[in-house]
Design brief:
Helix content is 52%, strand content 18%. It is α+β, with helices and mostly antiparallel strands and 279 residues long. Strands 4-3-2-1-5 form a five-stranded antiparallel β-sheet. A three-stranded antiparallel β-sheet has the order 6-8-7. Strand 7 and strand 8 form a beta hairpin. Helix 6 crosses helix 7. Homoheptamer. Its main location: membrane. It is found in: Cell inner membrane; Cell membrane.
Length: 279
């Protein structure tokens, strides 16, 4: 065994040189691919994917050449056959890893979800900070980072909140039954139109009398604003404040529940009250 090992030393040395050369070629290939793709309009995540695949192909070819040098009896066909049999066993052992890997490749080619988009999936909501091959990083609005397997984003519905520039907002506003509804609609409409965060170009403001409430006629007020979560909250705050101020200035009541207490029997007076009554 020692003689066989010594006899293989020249082949091992050559194979080592091949691996070193493979490392250099892989580094050069990554650099060339990065420079070439940086001049295109491909998303950064896709550029990283192509760079990784190029490096993997170079390393696979280099390892195959090194194996043939060390073991002359091997041929590329036998190596590929061995890889095919081994890949089945590896596939069963690392099923979840490969599932996330393939899902990541498909997600990277999606145009509907990009880094920087605000998404929601399976109760996880936040900004897409990074899309890797096996996982995606979601930065929640409270600052927490959630690392999500790509298979989850691939197999479940994903709500892309920022797919479009604007999203619709809706609030319910109630007025008293004795208020003229046309007047109330006009006051609410002018209040919403005065808000800077309300989009008034291609998206009109809609105000509909929705229902007869317990103590009010309820209006459904809808408008469009920026799709980012902060823009949504800021616009909602501005609209609610403006509508409340406009209705108050117009003398139109926004009703709230009144509570009347009725006692079945008269309440007894306290001793001090009895004394005052006698006095």
């Amino acid at each position: 065994m020692a003689r066989d090992t010594i006899a293989l030393l020249p082949q091992i040395a050559v194979a080592t040189l091949v691996l070193i050369l493979t490392w250099a070629i892989a580094a050069l290939g990554r650099s060339l691919i990065t420079r070439t793709l940086s001049r295109t309009k491909l998303r950064p995540s896709l550029q990283d994917l192509f760079t990784l695949l190029t490096s993997i192909l170079i390393w696979v070819f280099g390892i195959m050449v090194a194996a043939v040098i060390v073991f002359p009896g091997l041929t590329p066909a036998s190596i590929l056959a061995g890889l095919g049999i081994g890949s089945v066993a590896i596939g069963f052992a690392f099923k979840d890893v490969f599932e996330n890997f393939l899902a990541g490749i498909i997600i990277l080619f999606r145009r509907e979800m990009r880094m920087g988009d605000h998404i929601e999936c399976e109760g996880i909501e936040g900004k897409v900070a990074h899309i890797a091959i096996r996982e995606s990083h979601i930065r929640q609005t409270d600052g927490q980072l959630v690392i999500v397997p790509n298979a989850m984003l691939f197999k479940n519905p994903v709500y892309v909140r920022t797919d479009q520039k604007h999203r619709r907002q809706t609030v319910i506003c109630g007025v008293a039954y004795d208020v003229d509804l046309n007047e109330a609609r006009t006051v609410i409409s002018k209040a919403v139109e005065s808000c800077e965060t309300v989009e008034q170009g291609d998206h009109p403001i809609h105000i509909f009398a929705q229902e007869f409430g317990d103590s009010s006629i309820n209006f459904e007020v809808t408008w469009w604003t920026g799709s980012a979560p902060l823009e949504q909250r800021r616009s909602r705050d501005e609209v609610v404040t403006a509508v409340k101020r406009a209705l108050d200035d117009a003398g139109l009541e926004i009703p709230f529940p009144y509570r009347t207490l009725t006692f079945k029997e008269p309440l007894p007076l306290s001793r001090s009250e009895d004394d005052e009554a006698e006095g």
